[in-house]
Amino acid sequence: MSRAVTPPSMPGATLVLDIGKSNAKLALIGAGGDVVRSATLANVSEPDRVHGYLALGVSRLEAWLLAEVPSLLRGIVPARMAVTTHGAAFCALGADGLVLPPIDYEWDGYGETTAAFDASLANFGHHGTPLLGKGLNAGRQIDFVHRRWPGVAELIRYWLPYPQYWSWWLSGIACTEVSSLGCHTGLWSPDLNRYSDWAIARGIARRFAPLRRASDVIGELRPRLAGSWGLPPGIEVIAGVHDSNACLARYLQHHPAATIVSTGTWCVAMAPGAATGRLTPERDELVNVAVDGRPVPTARFMAGREFARLSAGCHPDEATIPALQEVLEAGWMALPSFANGSGPMPDRQGRILLQGAAAAQGIDAVPMRLRAALAALYCADMTMLLIEDLGPRDSTSSDATMPVILEGPLAGNPAYLAALSAALQPRSLLHSADTLEGTARGAWMLAWWQVPTANAGGTPSQVQAPSREVAELLRAHRRSFFACVKTI
């Protein structure tokens, strides 16, 4: 659904396409950074009957864009278009478009086909990629296609990361960008700033289009698309960026010592400047690659999925401070994990405790009105695990100079904010009050990376510490939670 805010006269406007795992969003953003109009579509993956795997709904997204863009623009001509998408997705591009649809990373039908690729991930220090389940290591997807359909693979001119596929769809120009290559793929060596040994030896590296920076203008909108959308020629298209790294890019220049926590389907904690040597790949920790090429120690868990499972019918708005206090006073606790295969304890089965004893009914034992607050508390506990795993930047830095900046849906959750701010003290917790998500905001900033811009979206604000009573309950809870986590 779209909404109109201003008349169709807007020099320097940008159209941002933000494709997350759950939703795709379009945002028309003015030169000053204000969101003018927006539209959202729920993503749907579809079984590909020809190849037998679960595929991302590319055709559905294309049809939506063809219909929605002119409706959204309504006469406004954007100067540039920028794309950001989720990771672990690559598109096989042939002479006339897609050779086969991109694999959904949640499909799990690889069997022993990619055993050789999995073995290559033993050298974590080289590629910074942990061995992940399903298709979360996108190199596994590519290796699978080449082994399963060698004839089809011969038709592939380029493997394009998902953001660059959509930039190609807009512009007709194929390129590759490091933030997607370095996103737990096994395809890139962050320290060497080149393709991984496996990708070179397997012949995969030569199947990628030329590297461009995420902020580069790669070309102009295809004449065919411009004509169908009623737009003049000359609209520039940006190379595109992996979504978590778009969020990080927003803060690289002005908050270089901050740990950025991007929330959504995934909670991703990124600590530029922290040591990569302390990462533990078995805990879903990895080395991301920022848009400027620097290695970024990263830890994550599937917060959106786990929050939904723990809320179990309770609306997220019920995660209030009074509800959190009631959860703490009653002694409810959730222990990981509720989305197996990811996070710091990927093989553990989630449990619900009451006063230290397992609740046989699980989440059904928790009063409905308290479930969202318990989910928020659990997500704060897990976020703190990630932040502590990433560790400090160096021995000379103080907590005051290393804030944690929170982006995404959990940045507006009162119970989560209270629990995380109490756990972080004396380190400060800031949160974005921007109405535009950090992924889309970062993509917009990258579209104008070389042009000085005002601090669109506002400066992140300090999260207020909870009351003394709630803070004491949180401290006691945190001691119990970490004691339980260390014993499981």
Written description of the protein model:
- Strand 2 and strand 3 form a beta hairpin.
- The chain starts with 13 loop residues before the first strand and ends with a helix.
- It is globular and about 65 Å long.
- The protein is 32% helix and 20% strand.
- It is built from 16 helices and 24 strands.
- The chain is an alpha+beta fold and 488 residues long.
The CATH class of the largest domain: Alpha Beta
Backbone CA Rg: 22 Å
Name the CATH homologous superfamily of the largest domain. ATPase, nucleotide binding domain
Assigned CATH architecture of the largest domain: 2-Layer Sandwich
Describe the largest sheet. 7 strands, mixed
Q: Structural class per helix/strand content?
A: alpha+beta
Low-confidence stretches: 1-7
Q: Main attributes?
A:
alpha+beta, Nucleotidyltransferase, domain 5, seven-stranded mixed sheet
